[in-house]
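Predict the assembly for these two chains.
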Amino acid sequence: METLGLLGDGMLIALQPINLLLIVIGVTVGLFIGAMPGLGSVNGVAILLPITFLVPPTGAIIFLAAIYYGAMYGGAISSITLGIPGASTAVATTFDGRPLAMQGRASLALVTAAIASFIGGTVANIIFTGFAPLLAGVALSFGPPEIFALMLLAFATFVGLGSDDIPKTIFSICFGLVLGAIGFDQISGAPRLVLFDITGFLQGIGFLVLAIGVYGLGEMIWTIEQTRGDVENTTPRMTAKGMAQDTAESLRRGWRGTTIGSLIGFFVGILPAAGATPASLMSYGVTKMISRRPQDFGRGSVDGVAAPEAANNSASTGSMLPMLTLGIPGSPTTAILLGGMVIWGLTPGPRLFVDQTEFVWGLIGSFYISNVAALIINLAFIPVFIWMLRMPFTILAPVIFVLSIIGGYAATRDMFDIWMILIFGIGAFVLRRMDYPLAPAVLAIVLGPIAEPTLRQSLLLSGGDPMIFLNRPIAAPITIIAISLILLPLVKVFRKKKPA
Amino acid sequence: MRYGEILTAGVLALFSIYLMWKSTELPIGFIEGRGPGGGAWPFWLSAIMLLSCIMVMVRWWRGTSPAAQSDEPFLDGYGWRTLALVGGGLLGFVALIDILSMYGAIAVFLIYYLRFLGRHSWALTLVFAVVAPIALFFFFEGAMRITMPSGWSFTDPVFDILYDIIY
């Protein structure tokens, strides 16, 4: 009861006119920043951090959290409408969101993303409110072996994500992981994999470079080639009735993905160093695995949009938990929020809930209000996003190419990356023609920098004995499930007989 | 597709071997007290890539993969033309960024694509080619404070005018 009272007080703080205004502005700004390829919640929060010194700390964190929420909603927009994941958290949304848009069901995909995000965020808020200190302790029990086991599980779900061609899927995963290893060895600091001795590789290859190359250029050239340049425009005009029907359909066809995404998202989100990307991917993989119609995934499944969207929003709330209770940021965005809190004179940690009650509960209250505001604002803008899709493809295609190049440059401000985007784009087109799934490579490049150090730390702990992943109570079951998921399809490959 | 499959797998196998060799510039074994060497992770991943390529080749040889049974060419005339026109256009776009600035290159690319590939009217083409770079300029340079390449010095007068507006 005490918690509910504190939450009520927090909501009243969040509903104060100045805070409410900050929420609406923050969500709207975040929505558009998140929708822009190359820009994500990190950019929005980092750029607008100095502005927050004009308002009290509670208003400041509410504003930044609202941007974070808005950007999480916004990431789905470019994934669905343009087919370019604006941020790594929205990669999995592209798998089914884009096919739905190509079938003229962009409104259904966008409504599903909005509703799943709302439900995911709300479920996470409720768990956060009730169990924050308890869950912080659980998160701390995840050491390097447990995190690596979790990453292995994420890679295992990639195998299920790919086409029937398992060797090509495994190639794609490893290729993404190797690309993520280019630059400097994280532990020794020595240059590593400086390909063909080109110094540009010293800075590594960012996720966005590969994602924009694959989806922004490669996929677009492939679409033009496959459709002979005659992409049919099947997107209907948006009406209130149509949107209501889409809402009902998304709830009916996407409840399973939403439920799984909400729960997995939160629990993966609270783990330090994990975050929303593995959460959205794992939710997608698990939803596909237990679905009665797994063959629909990748072709426009509503569950396939709902699961990653519920998960990334749920995880974004979850990642606030270690930040507030332990002072450990769960994602790059929360790292900036943490920095802001320190500047405002607040010390994150267990004492924060005792010493800064108004701040903490005001923030938690604002999560609920931001979530509602994000849903309303997102739904209100859906007709605008749909309008974009009604453009003839010969206009939309160059617009996507331009956004890909300028967005790619904005992320790192390095021309080397633009050339790499071009190379990846052409390479992706060729590999797509040869049925190599590329989504696993894009996801692997994100998870590689988490997986490698945790593997090395684990082996260092065990003196090189890989059994460390099988003799720890949390890591063991996760590892066994992951290995089974990888081995079962491989056995099928070898047992497949030559057709008569 | 039949020969494309084996050719692609062969090229990727060679690339995997190159990555394995490149990984050995750092230790790939277990170092006592320091754990796996810096080259171990990419080395073993590249080895798995190579194994995957060999599996693709074996399946091709046994004729069990769809591509191995396909008589469809890797790319027909239209495909090669698309790759040349769209890919070439993108190559030109990127090459022009350092000369004409990001926004100048965008304008040229939009004219090329909309007018010559899309066959839209000059009026629509010019509206897009002028409005899009200006809108992007104000978004990136004005709102987001992200500076894009400004090209050779002959573009300076245009940028001076635009920067006067935002600062």
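Helices of chain B lie at 2-23, 40-62, 77-117, 122-143, 156-166. Residues 52 and 87 of chain B are 29 Å apart (CA to CA).
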